[in-house]
Structure formats: C-alpha cells, structure tokens
Amino acid sequence: MRKYVIMGVQGSGKGTQSKLLADDLDLTHINVGDIFRWHVKQHTKLGAQVRRIVAAGELVGDDLVEDVVRERLQQHDWNYGFVVDGFPRNRRQAEFFLESFDIDGVIHLDLPDEEVRRRVLGRRLCSRCGMDYNLIAHRPEVEGRCDVCGGELVTREDDTPEALARRLRDYHDKTDPVLELFRGKEYVTTVDARGEKAAIQRTIRERLGLPPYHP
C-alpha cells in the first residue's frame, strides 16, 4: 500500500500529476477541490457555503477542509493506497495527518509565483458544460467557444489578479511551515513543475522509486 501527499500552489499541476499516479498505480485520488465542487454542483448546504467563499476570492477555511478530508479518509475504500491533493493546509493538520497515517512521501510541485499568475489568469471555463480550458496549453478551436458544446467560455469567479494575490499570500503563509515539518521527517520530494507533464511524472517516479511512467 502506498500513501502520498501532493502539495503545490494553485496551477502547479497537482490534479494532473495525482491522476497520472493514481490511474497507473491503482491508488485512490482524494482531491479536496473535487469534493467541494461536487457539493457546489449538487447544491448542498456545504456547496452554498463554498460558493460564497470562492466568489469572495478567498480560500475555504482550514477547519472545513479538515472535516471533509477526515470524513473521506474514514471511508477506507483506498485498497492500494491514496494520493491526497489539497491537504494538509496548515501545521496542525500536518501533525494530525502524520499521527493518523503512515505516509510514504510528500510530492512538492515547485512553481514560481510569476508562472502561477500566467497559468491561472489564462484559465477559462465553459458556462454551459463546465469544461476546463487554458489559453496557454489548451486553447479552444474557436476562440471563446467550447469545443464540446459550443458554450461561451468565461473567467472563473475567483480568477482575478486581486483574488489570486490573496490566495498566493495565504498559500505561502500556511504551506511553507507544513513543508518544513515534512522536510524535518525527510518525506519531501521537490520537483520543478514548469516542465511537460509526462517529464514531471517521470521525475516524480524516479525520485520515489516507483515503476517508470509510460504514457
């Protein structure tokens, strides 16, 4: 059984790299953002709360994140292990995680803030079907229109320069101490997140001693 945490600033490719690991190694990908998005789409009470927070350009509170992750991990459907993406978010959560789970490693996707701004502010979302686009790496065939349903592409509510600046400050204030804690336990593998996704995945596996990646 393999248990990993993947960390990185918004836009660093955590979801992509987690999915590549999970699909190939039969791990369960536990993505905090996906859990919250499901609640938003299903119009749950939690979803309404998350929508208000995101619309204000803020991050979901640490206590709420911890409750959601704790509940998800208690389902114990991760027979071969898991990759947790988006947690822990502060030192207290990291200490809880280390006490509760015998993790095998922490993958830190390192991305400079200027590259984060370039990637995040280039994101677009289909207003009709929800398909994700990025004007840098995944442009639509027809400008401003979704390739799947033809819906209008819009900027996400929380993807403004001001909101991103707040999230970056919050990320560094809370996450840097978490990384220091994990580094003290010699868990952290830092990988440059500016490369091509297959190359990043190969590097992750080489550093962790995992089977090679063959796309």
Please trace the helix and strand order, writing H or E for each element.
Answer: EHEHHHEHEHEEEHEH
Corresponding CATH superfamily: P-loop containing nucleotide triphosphate hydrolases
Q: Per CATH, what is the topology?
A: Rossmann fold
Second-tier CATH architecture: 3-Layer(aba) Sandwich
Terminal CA distance reads 23 Å
Anisotropy-based shape: globular
User: Percent helix among the residues?
Assistant: 40-55%
- Please list the strands of the largest sheet in the order they lie side by side: 2-3-1-4-8
Task: Give your account of this protein's structure.
The protein is an alpha/beta fold and 215 residues long. It has a single domain (2-111, 163-208), classed as Rossmann fold (3-Layer(aba) Sandwich), CATH 3.40.50.300. Helix content is 46%, strand content 17%. The chain has eight helices and eight strands, in the order βαβαααβαβαβββαβα. It has helices at 14-25, 32-41, 45-55, 62-73, 91-100, 113-120, 161-184, 197-208, and strands at 2-8, 28-31, 81-85, 105-110, 123-126, 132-134, 153-154, 188-192. The protein has a five-stranded parallel beta sheet with strand order 2-3-1-4-8, sandwiched between helices. A three-stranded antiparallel beta sheet has the order 6-5-7, with no helix packed on it. Helix 2 (32-41) packs across helix 3 (45-55). The longest helix is centred in the C-terminal third of the chain and has 24 residues, at 161-184. It is globular. The two termini are 23 Å apart. The mean pLDDT is 89.
